[in-house]
Structures are given as C-alpha cells and as structure tokens.
Amino acid sequence: MKKLIFTLLFLVGFIQIHAQLSLDVESGLAFQGYNDVRIPNESSATEFDFNDDFDLQTPVIPLRVRLGYRFAEKNLLSVLYAPLTVDYKGPAPFDISFQGDLFAQGRDIDGLYKFNSYRITYRRDLVMSERWTLGLGFTAKIRDARVKLSTDDVSAKKDDFGFVPLLNVFVAYNFGGWALFLEGDGLAGGPGRAFDFFVGGNVPLTDHLSLKAGYRILEGGADVDEVYNFTLINFANVGLIWQL
Fold this sequence. Notes:
Elements: H1 2-17, E1 21-38, E2 48-49, H2 50-53, E3 55-56, E4 63-71, E5 75-82, E6 85-91, E7 96-98, E8 101-103, E9 108-128, E10 132-150, E11 155-174, E12 179-189, E13 192-204, E14 209-223, E15 228-243
Antiparallel strand pairs: 1-2, 1-4, 1-15, 3-6, 4-5, 5-9, 6-9, 7-8, 9-10, 10-11, 11-12, 12-13, 13-14, 14-15
C-alpha cells in the first residue's frame, strides 16, 4: 500500500511539473525568392544568385521542432531545432570566383546552401484576455551555415557558425473554436538582418492536439568583409501542436 501511495504521489507530481509542456512540429514546402552570394565580399569575387543562376536539385521540405515549457502562467521558455539545406545543380552561367577558386563558365556545378538554426527563446505574455494574447521576448540564436560550390576537380566552401540575438513577438486572436496568430523572431541593424515569421491559424483536434497551417517567411543575411549573402525563402507549412 505504501508503495502504491508513493507511486501515485510521484505520478501526480510528475504531471504537475510537466503540465505546461508543449511540442510543436512543422513541415511543408519551401519556395525560394533569392539567394545572393559573394564570398569573400570584395571586388575580386563574383556575385551570383543560387536561385536564378542554378537549378534546384530536389524539393525543399523543411522541418522545425519546438519544445516549450510555460511557467507562472505568463512565461514561456522554448528551444527550437530548425535545419535547412538546399541543393543546387547546373552549368555556371559565367566565370565564378568563389573563396579564391575559379569555377569556369559552362562547368557543371553542385551547389549547397545550409542554414541550420538552434534557438532558445524566453517570452512573457503581457496581454492574456479571452480573445487576445500579446507576448514579447528575446531569442538567442545559433546559426550553423555553409555555402559550397564543387565540380569534378574543384571544391570550395565557406562555413559560418555564430550567435545572433533576436527579438521575439507573438500575437493571437481567439475566435472561440480556432485562433489566428503571428509569431516569430527578427532584428535588423548594422551589417545584417534576420527575420523568421509565421502567420496562420490553428484548430483543436483533441483536448491536447491542434492542427496549424499558414505561411512562413525567412529572410536575412550579412554584408561583411568575409561574406555577402542575403536570402529569402517562403514556406507553405502545416504542423501539429501537442500540449499537456
């Protein structure tokens, strides 16, 4: 009996501790607007656009996984894993000087653009009414990026691993059975910018599971000595949100 009581108390405590957990999984299709590159960012290097100058090798199907924990009612802490890799292929439309190597016009090139994002976000919901929710916070983002060109005998790449501070915003309107919301991270200033925003709706499927669908925009880049790269990617996304 004591073991049973102890087990029940443990389960109750476990549920209470984890009662505010959420898991958000999102995927869909990506449609690229532009991907301008010049590396290094100097006159001797060639600027090109992955999107205009090469062919997309395979459809880009993104994946985003966010684990959240709400505490003290109005506070949300979350971690995000958002990998992104785009493969390109095609003949060089002109001579391309990239990372000090020359890729001659007409040579078949395999191109790679990778931009994996790892984020920790703290948000506080300043307004929580029957209809409206408004939250503001900040995000610590780690970017793991790579741009690569290769042929049969020449290969060059540029890796970029670093920290980016971002502001976080969340706005939602509850219609009763479903909600329309906007959420994302963004910041502009200095030599670069970064924006990642989603607008869409979610509909409850069960007491703990919701379906979400909408549009996401990912835009940004940097204009510094080592790299010139600005990218725009649009996403048509669907996902599931599980909450305890």
